[in-house]
Amino acid sequence: MAPIFAVLAVYYGESVKSGEPNEAIRWWAVGVFIFAAISDGIDGYIARHCDQHSKFGAFMDPFADKTLLLTGIVFLTFVPWGEGWQIPIWFTALMITRDIIIIAGIWILHYLNHQVPIKPHWTGKVCTVTQMILLGWVMLKFIPLDPLYPTIAATIFTAWSGIEYFRQGLLQLHDHHHQAENSKS
């Protein structure tokens, strides 16, 4: 659904640039995004409550979440949705930097440990929710408050969850180091 949202966002942005915003396209983009987010949530709920989890699902679910969120945030940063209705570029840079650090950490841990237990942390869940709120705030455009306020909340939890995942990675690296030393003894 992320590519469909992206196409609709671009078409809406072009209509905004031309001075004649096509609100029908905006609402289609919003609908596609909401449908994708809700279907992802339902999928996760069903998987947890029916005990239907797998390594593939543990990888693909966060990948799908990130694809949708990143697509939304990048497009709402660079595609105009109206005066003042964009996500600040500094937030997008923070989010991408955090995700690159997390992916690099997972790669390093996988290289050293040959497996990386991925344990979601509550700050990561709140981070996703605050980012979704930010996206909705910008897409819906009916709340008279500047998008800076949800951006600040999303920034706090994006940074906090990044620090928490970095800390978890360091603990796994530390445990690996101790296991390696103990096996030499």
Q: How would you describe what is shown here?
A:
- The protein is mainly alpha-helical.
- It has a single domain, classed as Four Helix Bundle (Hemerythrin (Met), subunit A).
- Helices cover about 80% and strands about 0% of the residues.
- It contains six helices and no strands.
- It is elongated, with a radius of gyration of 19 Å.
Summarize the structure.
Helix content is 80%, strand content 0%. By secondary structure, it is mainly α. The protein has one domain (2-184): Four Helix Bundle (Hemerythrin (Met), subunit A) (Up-down Bundle).
Oligomer: single chain
- Described by the principal axes of the CA atoms, the overall outline is elongated
The N- and C-terminal alpha carbons lie at a distance of: 53 Å
How many E strands? 0
Largest sheet: none
- Give the count of structural domains: 1
Q: What is the fold named in CATH at topology level?
A: Four Helix Bundle (Hemerythrin (Met), subunit A)
Order of helices and strands: HHHHHH
Low-confidence stretches: none
CATH architecture level-2 label: Up-down Bundle
CATH C-level: Mainly Alpha
The share of residues in extended strands comes to: under 5%
The total of helices stands at 6
User: Can you give the helix content as a percent range?
Assistant: over 70%
By secondary-structure content and strand pairing, the structural class works out as mainly alpha
> What's the pLDDT, averaged over the residues?
86
* Computed Rg: 19 Å
